[in-house]
Amino acid sequence: MHISEICAQFNVSRRSLHRAFYDMLGLGPVTFLRRKRLCAIHSALRDNTPAIATIGEIAMQHGFIELGRFSHYYRSLFGEYPSETLHASKRISRGIDRRRALATG
């Protein structure tokens, strides 16, 4: 979604939209939308493993073309690199599999 589409939908100027976002959320609409996409990516990385999806694929599916910039935004928001999230999900799923095997074995 682009800012111009939001402005058209609500029949407001870019400046009015920007001011409303700052008044309500303390950040601008571009930053809000970026964070929303980053949170969706964070969830996707936690739900996948390196064998199923790549970070680049997931990032591009959510509109990030410049992967270096994406990685910077991601680390600033979550305090870890996307690869750390993806590999942590693999360790967690392995731990769950082990616990299931112990419970049924």
UniProtKB/TrEMBL annotation:
HTH araC/xylS-type domain span: 1-88
Keywords for this protein: DNA-binding, Transcription, Transcription regulation
InterPro entries according to UniProt: AraC_XylS_family_regulators, HTH_AraC
Full protein name: Transcriptional regulator GlxA family with amidase domain
